[in-house]
From TrEMBL:
Pfam families: Polyketide_cyc2, SnoaL_4. It comes from the Bacteria. Residues 321-443 form the SnoaL-like domain. Gene3D superfamilies: 3.10.450.50, 3.30.530.20. This is SRPBCC family protein.
Amino acid sequence: MTQELHVTEHTITVAAAPETVFALVERAEDWPHVFPPTLHVEYLERSGDEERLRIWATANGEVKSWTSRRVLDREGLRIRFRQEVSQAPVAAMGGEWIVEALADGGSRVRLLHDFRAVDDLERNVAWILEAVERNSGAELAALESAALRVGGDAEPYTFEDTVHVDAPAEEVRTFLHDAGRWQERLPHVARVLLKEDTPDVQHLEMDTRAPDGSTHTTTSVRICLPDGRITYKQSQTPALMSVHTGEWTVRETPSGSVAVSRHTVVVNTAAVTKVLGPSATVADARAFIRDALGGNSTITMRHAKEFAERRGRTEPVAPAEYASIQQFYARQMRLLDEGEGDAWAGTFTDDGVFDQSSFTEPVRGRASIASAVRERPAPPPGTVRRHWLGLPAAWRFPDGSVRTGYDALVVSTSAGAAPVLRLSTSCRDVLVADGDSWLVRHRYVGHDGQ
């Protein structure tokens, strides 16, 4: 039996250009910090004017997920959508966004829905109608707010923090996924409550300590994605933010992994002077939020690093092996200081990688590394450059490689002048045995201050 088709329409007038409004609806990846119900959106396919999306959103307080197809009519400022697979009590749903130009330069937005309820049950129809009414109203109001702040100080802004980890990505992901244990693992977390009634959908309530000793309660929904990413959206934010979304990403590298914390924030402009003082600006609020969120997420990643490296490492290398590693580094740095670039490059494997935080792309392969050394500018006449390495820490990993971490300084001394510190770095290597010595398979040099 065919279920009854129900149709709804919601409208709003927005004092913004139709193209501005349409762009906000078109960019589905931005919906989590535009529309309150939307938690996360993933593009599954994109081709011309057609798209497939996986969407996570709240409906009547429940987290729902579905896949939709969209057809974009950019000239007509219309977007048709249809759910491919719906979640009960929805049997089928589709609709259309229509943006119409008004004579005064503003826009009229129409949001149409059509749906069928599972088994045509009255309670299912009522549930869907309530969700559509609530979400459509919230989305249109938020769309108006987002359109009015385009080009202004209150637009969303995004920033990232990164931590390099000498351990496999999976170990870091384990720490980030197990947020229910953060109270015992993180110094800035005073209380945490984690619920996961639906697999890979986590509801997190957390009290976070500020540097002044005060605590702030936040609640968020976290989506744990198959590729290991964790995206989240706060449903209860501190007063200074009206929207806060984020993402944890951990990617494998030849020398371990890299953890990245990404935040997107909309400042609550009405609260700026109340929270930060009468002379505070939106720029001040952004800086304050950047420091607070970035500081906490970096602390979290550093503890994840410690956790992962402790679990990922085996015992430190044997004393004789450690002595041979020290001898290897002493010889390698001497070659570099004496201008033996080709011989220095020969201490890398054929497929070796040399990377620095100042590089756009790593240098790959022994031949390319040798060429890069030859092309680097020579010191001025009468100037000597020396590389000094601190004592390396070294561990043998399950894949048989040895991974080391050490600090390195570059010192430049001109004739008749005092030495000058040119560079302070932190380095991580992956070493493989080469007879009774070693070769570098991957080196990462992080410049302090970058």
